[in-house]
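Students often ask why we bother encoding 3D structure as a string. The short answer is that it lets us treat folding as translation between two languages. Here is a chain of 51 residues written in the first language.
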Amino acid sequence: MREIYMQLAGFAQTWGLLYFFGAFLCVCAYAYWPSKRKGFDAAAQIPLKED
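And here it is in the second language, the structure alphabet:
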């Protein structure tokens, strides 16, 4: 039983790290994509608008 746990833990540590690193890169690419700038700038101004 311990052998299976160690294999699963090793798998999760290796591929989990790669998965989350890839997800982080995707989020960064989405946030800094040039065509998204206008929408982000508009959303940033929402708290400053007076009704």
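Translate back mentally: Residues 20-51 form one domain. Keep this in mind for the problem set.
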